[in-house]
């Protein structure tokens, strides 16, 4: 709809229905924050399930948590935090009038970290498959691996793994969407859309990226680190 | 109050720019439009189809209930009929009805903007809605679903042999159209208001939609994740809500009603906004207690989020929870009562003219009163155990959703019809249709209060013979209601092609959409950007004669 958008100085596009760039910027920002609020409610339902079942079945939760690979989860946490840093630096570059090349450089690094996260996550999922920790009907098969590990708690452990896969799967889906949008953002960056006077698109994408990171920051301790002190120190009460 | 300067402008002369209807005639100019008015029309067309489907299903249900024996359908088919009726009417008609059509069309014009804040997202929301709608149609084609619209596990996730997962995904997808619409409205109302359009000069229609958009934004994601999780449990047999797997089916109900109770306010709040506009116009007065009516919308939206447990008194949730939910439910009735009292007070010493929209608004007030007050019966911990899952509940929520939300929708469609189409409908058939609908509606649902109180459970297609008289009354009412709606739709349809041309302000109403935009509006809404200098509903003390017809 190029005829509906008119150019203003600096190559920035003001959409046809806004009066000025400030109004456009404020709208984008409010819209993005409201969208993140809906995302919080979306993940919130799963966190609610997590809280309810963790309170019902604390032993199963602890046993099941120990089956997760803390090293891989920890490395992934570090990878995501790094990606948030590079994302913030990409925005900072645009904000301070940095050219397209440094912008794209930081975005490419962010892309690299994001992809690394998904690769590590894939290996983690693969490991769960190999250990028979996929929460389908076979999970509670008395001769299966899970039954041997969890004993009487196997049904409850299955709920843990159900939530583990749904929560981390939904998070990974958000990462994949983010990586898709990353290519679009890099393209816009290449075309020189983001300048010190207007870098809305980049900033909004950054907000999304940070949001997805923060979801993981909550997921990691809640899923991976349960009762970690008990394994080392023998159960404080 | 400040009536010394109050005048009503008859609206702009016909603009030399094309109206939104004539600005492009190709299919592409409609299907790829980012104009909020055209998107509203797209929504209107789709919603009308779903409303017709849902209505036909209702007629089939009532046809079956003419007799105590199940002679038209077997139990399985009947289960599918009421399930599909509920799903189609709630997710594909009631939730988007007023916001996606009238709200989409009017919000930018009423606040003096050229469009909503995110026009492309607005179009996207329609495609998302159509995707969800297509999935619902696919469910019907594939043989339906029989869980009830509530989709309770473990029946839905484990035992039902019908298309539950696809239904859940249809609800999931459609939810995102609602979220996108709410997001657009919220940002539009915050950021796109014309100079001088302060918060307390906003028409109450806008306040109602602002409150609605908050519920859409905060509630809809929760139902999305709830039905998604249920569908995952069903497809992959993972075990979250299934009690045989250690899951808690009541947790599903909590999550389900966390959205689905506030969803009732998504259906009714926009209707309340419509009623405020109609009553102000046809009594030629500012709405009594404007600020209270505006704030009561927010009050309903906020308190509405903490009453969901009143759907679950018999699930075995804690008694203390029951008590708190019961008290909160009584409290949520207060803002609704404030609105009703204020509408009534507005009419006092007003110059009331009984045009079709006002007839619908009057019906709304009576029916909403019954629907609302019977809601308090249901909020009562003792009485609810008696009437739970009976026709009393069915009657109660139909008084709110049909008697109130649908009547408000029809009031709004008639009120803004000249603005949307640039034509007038025939007043006689419209009014006659409204009265038929009112009679048919009451005949359908009032006997159901009695049936429910006598103990007739919902969702069965056979019943003891002594209840036949009341059931026949109800079924006859449904046929009358259907005929009235058909008559009104035909009248509207005829007016679209052959109605007399409408002026910009046929009701001589206040508001930017009447006084500053032509009928139908141009694509950019206004020839010159409006500047607002007065309160909403600033009707002059001296009455101008209404210039319509």
Describe the structure.
The complex is a heterodimer of chains A (237) and B (549). Chain A has a single domain, classed as Four Helix Bundle (Hemerythrin (Met), subunit A) (Up-down Bundle), CATH 1.20.120. In chain A, 74% of the residues lie in helices and 3% in strands. Chain A has helices at residues 21-56, 58-65, 70-95, 100-130, 145-150, 154-190, 200-224, 228-233; strands at 6-8, 12-14. A two-stranded antiparallel sheet of chain A has the order 1-2. Chain A starts with 5 loop residues before the first strand and ends with a helix. Chain B has 549 residues and is mainly alpha-helical. Chain B is built from 16 helices and no strands. The two termini of chain B are 30 Å apart. In chain B, 58% of the residues are buried. The model of chain B has no long low-confidence stretch (mean pLDDT 95). At the A-B interface, helix 1 and helix 6 of A face helix 6 and helix 7 of B.
A few lines on this structure:
Chain A is built from eight helices and two strands; from the N terminus they run ββαααααααα. By secondary structure, chain A is mostly helical.
Q: What is the ordering of alpha helices and beta strands of chain A?
A: EEHHHHHHHH
Low-confidence stretches of chain A: 1-10, 229-237
- The CATH superfamily of chain B is known as Cytochrome c oxidase-like, subunit I domain
DSSP strand content of chain B: under 5%
Helical content of chain B stands at 55-70%
Largest interface: A-B, 40 and 39 residues
Q: How many helices of chain A?
A: 8
User: How confident is the prediction overall: mean pLDDT of chain A?
Assistant: 90
CATH architecture of chain A: Up-down Bundle
CATH fold call of chain B: Cytochrome C Oxidase, Chain A
């Amino acid at each position: 709809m190029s005829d509906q958008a008119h150019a203003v100085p600096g190559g920035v596009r003001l959409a046809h229905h806004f009066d000025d760039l400030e109004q456009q910027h404020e709208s984008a920002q409010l819209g993005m924050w409201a969208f993140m609020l809906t995302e919080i409610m979306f993940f919130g339902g799963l966190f609610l399930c997590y809280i309810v079942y963790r309170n019902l079945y604390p032993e199963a939760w602890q046993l099941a948590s120990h089956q997760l690979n803390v090293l891989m989860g920890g490395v992934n946490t570090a990878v995501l935090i790094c990606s948030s840093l590079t994302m913030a630096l990409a925005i900072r570059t645009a904000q301070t009038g940095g050219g397209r090349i440094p912008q794209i450089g930081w975005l490419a690094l962010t892309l690299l970290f994001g992809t690394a996260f998904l690769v590590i996550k894939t290996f983690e999922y693969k490991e769960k498959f190999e250990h028979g920790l996929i929460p389908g009907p076979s999970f509670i098969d008395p001769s299966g691996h899970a039954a041997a590990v969890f004993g009487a708690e196997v049904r409850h452990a299955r709920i843990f793994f159900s939530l583990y896969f749904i929560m981390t799967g939904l998070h990974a889906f958000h990462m994949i969407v983010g990586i898709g949008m990353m290519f679009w953002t890099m393209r816009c960056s290449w075309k020189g859309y983001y300048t010190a006077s207007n870098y809305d698109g980049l900033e909004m994408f950054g907000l999304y990226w940070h949001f997805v990171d923060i979801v993981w920051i909550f997921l990691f301790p809640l899923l991976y680190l349960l009762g970690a002190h008990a394994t080392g120190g023998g159960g404080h009460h | 109050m400040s009536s010394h300067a109050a005048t009503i402008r008859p609206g702009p002369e016909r603009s030399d720019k094309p109206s939104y209807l004539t600005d492009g005639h190709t299919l592409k100019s409609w299907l790829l439009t980012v104009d909020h008015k055209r998107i509203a029309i797209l929504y209107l067309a789709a919603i009308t189809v779903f409303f017709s489907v849902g209505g036909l299903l209702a007629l089939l249900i009532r046809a079956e209930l003419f007799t105590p024996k199940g002679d038209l359908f077997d139990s399985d088919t009947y289960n599918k009929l009421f399930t599909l009726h509920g799903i189609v009417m709630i997710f594909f008609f009631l939730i988007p009805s007023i916001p996606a059509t009238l709200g989409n069309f009017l919000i930018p014009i009423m606040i003096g903007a050229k469009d909503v804040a995110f026009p492309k997202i607005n179009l996207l929301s329609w495609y998302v809605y159509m995707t969800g709608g297509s999935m619902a149609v696919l469910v019907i084609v594939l043989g339906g679903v029989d869980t009830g619209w509530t989709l309770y596990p473990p029946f839905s996730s484990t035992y039902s042999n019908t298309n539950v997962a696809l239904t859940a995904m249809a609800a999931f997808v459609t939810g995102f159209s609602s979220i996108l619409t709410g997001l657009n409205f919220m940002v539009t109302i915050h950021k796109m208001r014309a100079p001088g359009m302060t918060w307390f000069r906003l028409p109450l229609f806008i306040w109602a939609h602002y409150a609605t958009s908050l519920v859409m934004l905060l509630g809809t994601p929760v139902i999305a994740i709830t039905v998604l999780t249920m569908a995952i449990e069903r497809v992959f047999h993972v075990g979250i809500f299934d009690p045989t797997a250690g899951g808690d089916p009541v947790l599903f109900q909590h999550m389900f009603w966390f959205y689905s109770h506030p969803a009732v306010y998504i259906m009714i709040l926009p209707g309340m906004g419509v009623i405020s506009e109609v009553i102000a116009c046809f009594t030629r007065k500012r709405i009594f207690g404007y600020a209270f009516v505006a704030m009561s919308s927010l009050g309903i939206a906020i308190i509405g989020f903490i009453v969901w447990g009143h759907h679950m008194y018999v699930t075995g949730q804690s008694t203390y929870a029951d008590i708190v939910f019961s008290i909160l439910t009584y409290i949520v009735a207060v803002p609704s009562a404030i609105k009703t009292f204020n509408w009534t007070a507005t009419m006092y010493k007003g110059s009331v003219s009984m045009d079709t929209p006002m007839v619908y608004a009057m019906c709304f007030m009576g029916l909403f009163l019954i629907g609302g007050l019977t809601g308090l019966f249901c909020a009562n911990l003792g009485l609810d155990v008696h009437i739970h899952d009976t026709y009393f509940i069915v009657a109660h929520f139909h008084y709110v959703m049909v008697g109130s939300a649908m009547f408000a929708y029809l009031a709004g469609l008639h009120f803004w019809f000249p603005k949307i189409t640039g034509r007038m409908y025939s007043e006689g058939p419209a009014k006659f249709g409204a009265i038929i609908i009112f009679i048919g509606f009451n005949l359908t649902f009032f006997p159901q209060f009695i049936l429910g109180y006598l103990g007739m459970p919902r969702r069965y297609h056979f019943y003891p013979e002594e209840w036949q008289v009341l059931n026949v009354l109800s079924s006859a009412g449904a046929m009358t209601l259907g005929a009235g709606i058909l008559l009104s739709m035909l009248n509207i349809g005829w007016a679209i092609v052959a109605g007399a041309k409408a002026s910009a302000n046929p009701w001589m109403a206040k508001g930017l959409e009447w006084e500053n935009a032509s009928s139908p509006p141009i694509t950019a809404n206004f020839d010159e950007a409006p500047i607002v200098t007065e309160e909403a509903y600033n009707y002059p003390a001296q009455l101008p004669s209404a210039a319509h017809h």
